[in-house]
Fold this protein.
Amino acid sequence: MKLILLGAPGAGKGTLAEILSRMCNIPTISTGNILRAAMKNGTPVGLKAKEYVDSGKLVPDDVIIGIVRERLAEDDCKNGYILDGMPRTIPQAQALEDAGVNIDAALSLEISDEAIIERMTGRRVCKDCGTTYHIVNIPPKVEDKCDKCGGELIIRKDDMPETVKERLSVYHKETEPLKEFYAERGKLKTVESSSTVDEMTKSAVKALGL
Ligand code: AMP
């Protein structure tokens, strides 16, 4: 199974990716998590990405395409993978095709901008392992502590209200056209994301025929 998750920031791609990844026993490749790890470690990619990520803009296509090409060549991707947050532009989608990647489906999580803004204010991320929580919908067992590694839960800089608005506008302009790109190829499936995680998962499993 090679799956692409599309959807606005905060639509629930990361959460669904983690669930489907366990279910299908394939890795999730989250470009956002890879970039945040690179930024934390101060690598050349991280230094390049920081100003874009912190201001809610897209990191240049060539940086992303390089990261993903390298990651897909790793052993654990042999039986499939879930791409979470990539592609985000038509050139990125084109680059995947040019690299011979033949996906099974692009699943788009549909949700209104208003619901996103409400959700983002409650989002928390483990500063050590990147696992995502929500103070109401997916609370950690112990407040402000990661269930998996005990790391501190923080609010991402790019989840601040002004940055969220910028990211939504970038999403509509640059990423939403990908729905048409994959619909033309007969790969697009859509799922309502405004419901609970359980309902979203059920709809996704049905849409993907899992
Ligand atoms: P995410 O965690 O997927 O919401 O990504 C966080 C930020 O990382 C985005 O707002 C972008 O600045 C950057 N980013 C992640 N994936 C991509 C991508 N495929 N193309 C460009 N920028 C990306």
